[in-house]
Amino acid sequence: MKAAVITFPGSNCDRDLAVALAAAGADVARVWHKDDALPAGTDLVAVPGGFSFGDYLRCGAIAARSPIAAAIRAHAGRGGMVLGICNGFQVLTELGLLPGALMRNAGLTFVCKDATLRVASRDNPFLGAFSAGERLSLPVAHHDGNYQIDPEGLARLKGEGRIALTYATPINGSVADIAGVLSENRRVLGMMPHPERAAEAAHGGADGARLFRGLMDATAAA
């Protein structure tokens, strides 16, 4: 699998994400936000966490207007896989690739801790290595991870099985404790927790590595 990891000014998880993907077996290329094209043959676009453009205006709003944005949209439009983590999730909502919005956390506090998550949907290439309802542990680190969507949108996500991950216990005010959502074709995943920070035992857990290996397996089987 060929993966392209996007870097914006203020990204701080791009190297970790590239290393975790490479360790899982991906051929990883690094792409600067001012590039206007993805490397030929890209299977997965990975948008990392951090504070793109200092989180000015809204988190991810400026990044979604970078030169590379059109190529990311085009990749998703032709069925390519896109993974957005933390700030990357915010960017994907700003790009219009995922519904809803990420708001300031309830309590107006930065949340940084390990979170227990529940797999709500495994019918996608990202979470096929897990069982439905299985619990996993991944770190979270965000100030604007409070996922919100209107009641009609929430009903649609539930009805279509597009809620990918939920928090086992509330941590940031997200509606329905949502931690990750999928696009209509299930090829785009946005998630607030950081799998790249749980990619080996030395990190305190390896559930993230399992996610990346499952993604490699799903791509190889496609």
UniProtKB/TrEMBL annotation:
Active site: 86 (nucleophile), 194, 196
One GO cellular component, as annotated: cytoplasm
Metabolic or biological pathway: Purine metabolism; IMP biosynthesis via de novo pathway; 5-amino-1-(5-phospho-D-ribosyl)imidazole from N(2)-formyl-N(1)-(5-phospho-D-ribosyl)glycinamide: step 1/2
Compartments it resides in: Cytoplasm
Keywords, alphabetical: ATP-binding, Cytoplasm, Glutamine amidotransferase, Hydrolase, Ligase, Nucleotide-binding, Purine biosynthesis
Highest taxon above the source species: Bacteria
Annotated coiled-coil segments of the chain: none
SUPFAM superfamilies, A to Z: Class I glutamine amidotransferase-like
Pfam families the UniProt entry points to: GATase_5
Cited InterPro entries: Class_I_gatase-like (IPR029062), PRibForGlyAmidine_synth_PurQ (IPR010075)
GO molecular function annotation: ATP binding; glutaminase activity; phosphoribosylformylglycinamidine synthase activity
SMART domains hit by this protein: GATase_5
Hydrolase as UniProt keyword: yes
The reaction(s) this protein catalyses: N(2)-formyl-N(1)-(5-phospho-beta-D-ribosyl)glycinamide + L-glutamine + ATP + H2O = 2-formamido-N(1)-(5-O-phospho-beta-D-ribosyl)acetamidine + L-glutamate + ADP + phosphate + H(+); L-glutamine + H2O = L-glutamate + NH4(+)
Keyword Ribosomal protein included in the entry's annotation: no
A Gene Ontology BP annotation from the UniProt entry: 'de novo' IMP biosynthetic process
NCBIfam families reported for this sequence: FGAM_synth_I, PRK03619.1
HAMAP family in alphabetical order: PurQ
Role this protein plays: Part of the phosphoribosylformylglycinamidine synthase complex involved in the purines biosynthetic pathway. Catalyzes the ATP-dependent conversion of formylglycinamide ribonucleotide (FGAR) and glutamine to yield formylglycinamidine ribonucleotide (FGAM) and glutamate. The FGAM synthase complex is composed of three subunits. PurQ produces an ammonia molecule by converting glutamine to glutamate. PurL transfers the ammonia molecule to FGAR to form FGAM in an ATP-dependent manner.
Subunit structure comment from the entry: Part of the FGAM synthase complex composed of 1 PurL, 1 PurQ and 2 PurS subunits.
Protein name per Swiss-Prot or TrEMBL: Phosphoribosylformylglycinamidine synthase subunit PurQ
Species of origin: Paracoccus sanguinis
